[in-house]
Amino acid sequence: MTERGDFLLVSVGRRRVGLRLVDVIEVADLGEVHAVPFSEPSLRGVSPAKGSLVPVVHLGALLASESCPGERPTVGVLAMAGGTMVCFEVDDADVVTSGTLRPVPPGEMMPWALAVVQVDDDLVPILNLNTLRDRLAEAGTRS
Known about the structure:
14% helix; mainly beta; CATH 2.40.50.180; 2 helices
């Protein structure tokens, strides 16, 4: 894998991950979120964006297979996940970088990672938004 790309780096808890910039629609302050019944514990609800109601997912909780924390972050990253618009709650989203995608190192448990990219001295996982979208859709069929 030698593909180069541009990435938005976000922080969720103590974890830093990247999203391919071509998938990012915008970074914005989160507005009102309306609760909905759903079996995925990382789904906070839905919020209006770009003329539609989009799912609002706490990214850290989704990656850790946990429930949303009580306190809501104020930063949202609106992204296209395989043709579906999703808003990810993150703690911070402020660095855009370029890099070469590398395979996820053997033994790393990151089923949600498309690849990794070298940023300074760290390997940062790049999210596979299709995998995350499929996980949310699968949870929706169980609700």
